[in-house]
């Protein structure tokens, strides 16, 4: 009877890649073990990435093709917030916007590598805040990367401004992808300073 009962193997990181009982499927056991070692919050990070990406792209498509922001100029929404189309050839918030075609290609390649590194980090993150923060950064980076591939520049449209002493002070024109990246970085900083440390294995 005992020979009919499948063997149960502990998920030991040191045992990955080693042979197990011949009756079992080593490849299946190893994949299952690796899946168990992923961050328990990974699903929420993936959801955060998809939501950030979807909202970013939906807002840009609506503003470009439905609202027709290109032919409207600056549209005042509130006394301190305008919608205005800005084609950003740099990175977030207009930095390095003077880069040429070679610089554009280098920034896109760097973004691809960064997304891959962040994705690996997200699968191993030990807290919910870090996982969601990384998901937001990944979703925002992919959103801006899609713009760069589709238009050769990132679609920015949100402009905050304020008047003090008769002078107008404006922030950089940005989009929802930039906002997601900033929120993700804030979540990582919060987790770094106030998050619970991962429990140590006995």
State the share of residues found in helices, binned by percent. 40-55%
Q: Please, how many helices?
A: 5
Specify the structural class.
Answer: alpha+beta
Q: What's the total number of strands?
A: 4
Q: What's the structural domain tally?
A: 2
Write the H/E string, N to C.
HHEEHHEEH
How far do the termini sit from each other?
34 Å
Strand portion, in percent?
Answer: 5-15%
Written description of the protein model:
A 4-stranded antiparallel β-sheet has the order 1-2-3-4. A hairpin with a 2-residue loop joins strand 3 and strand 4 (167-170). It folds into 2 domains: 1-37, no CATH class; 40-194, no CATH class. It is globular. 51% of the residues lie in helices and 13% in strands. By secondary structure, the protein is of the alpha+beta class. The protein has 5 helices and 4 strands, in the order H-H-E-E-H-H-E-E-H.
How are the elements arranged and paired?
Blueprint: H1 26-37, H2 42-65, E1 75-78, E2 81-88, H3 101-124, H4 128-151, E3 154-164, E4 167-170, H5 176-194
Helix pairs in contact: 2-4, 3-4, 4-5
Précis, in short:
This protein has 202 residues and is of the alpha+beta class. 51% of the residues lie in helices and 13% in strands.
């Amino acid at each position: 009877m005992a020979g009919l009962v499948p063997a149960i193997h502990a998920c030991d990181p040191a045992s990955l890649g080693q042979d197990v009982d011949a009756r079992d499927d080593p490849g299946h056991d190893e994949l299952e073990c690796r899946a168990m070692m992923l961050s328990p919050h990974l699903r929420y990070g993936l959801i955060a990435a998809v939501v950030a990406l979807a909202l970013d792209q939906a807002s840009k498509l609506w503003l470009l093709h439905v609202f027709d922001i290109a032919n409207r100029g600056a549209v005042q929404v509130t006394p301190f917030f305008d919608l205005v189309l800005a084609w950003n050839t740099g990175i977030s918030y207009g930095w390095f916007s003077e880069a040429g075609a070679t610089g554009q290609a280098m920034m896109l390649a760097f973004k691809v590598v960064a997304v891959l590194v962040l994705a690996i980090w997200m699968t191993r993150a030990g807290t919910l805040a870090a996982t969601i923060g990384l998901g937001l950064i990944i979703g925002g980076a992919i959103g801006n990367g899609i713009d760069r591939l589709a238009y050769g520049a990132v679609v920015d449209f949100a402009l905050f401004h304020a008047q003090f002493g008769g002078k107008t002070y404006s922030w950089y024109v940005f989009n929802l992808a930039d906002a997601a990246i900033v929120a993700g970085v804030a979540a990582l900083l919060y987790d770094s300073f106030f998050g619970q440390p991962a429990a140590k294995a006995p």
